[in-house]
Amino acid sequence: MNLSFRPQNILPEDRPIQVILASQSVGRKGLLEKLGIIFRTLITHVDEDAIVNKDPYKTIKARADAKAQEVVKNPRLYNLPTEGRVLVIAADSMAVLGASTYGRTQDKEETKTQLKALMGKTHIFATATCIVFMNNGIVKKTWGNLFKTKVTMRKMLPAELEAYVNRYDFARFAAGYSINEAPWDFIRKIDGSYTNVIGLPFEELLPILRKLEIIK
User: Fold this and answer.
1) I need a surface site. Which of 18, 29, 77, 205 has the fewest CB within 10 A?
2) How many C-beta atoms surround the C-beta of residue 194 within 10 A?
3) Whole-Å CA distances, 100 to 48, 52, 76, 96, 200
4) Residue ranges making up the domain that contains 69
């Protein structure tokens, strides 16, 4: 007697949604991991520095949009499945203080320069999102938003600042700081979304994940 079992074919629409984070941000990756969902990360070929607008918030939004569209328009390059459902999550973050903007730094000295400019003041930490849902290679829905959080930073002593930048690789973070990795009390107050300052506002993301039944 042949007891071999042949599983039924699973239709593309019945397969789990493949979640793609178009970012190598440690903070964004950590937030998705906390949700317990399966996802993969990738690096886009977008030249972010070439996308600049006089309005910093338009710059942030344009960069997030460019990252998502780069992935969607180049499915082979980014190994997107031609069948089934895909959710591409892209974002961009920046700190804004007056007419000045603060993105990722290149080295420790630039990190210290940015932090010195922000210390003792309240700045805006802004994150733009662009989230694209695809089915069988066709874009079905696109969400996008811009979140702003007021962050008040205290002044640090020179020795404290030096120790701070030597402990972590803050070149990975917008404005040279991360509120969820360093055990420091340099942030005095946050007015707005906490996860926004990490780089991915849950206020925008969670309703989408629930609607698509990726999380309950």
Assistant:
1) 77
2) 12
3) 17, 13, 38, 6, 22
4) 16-211
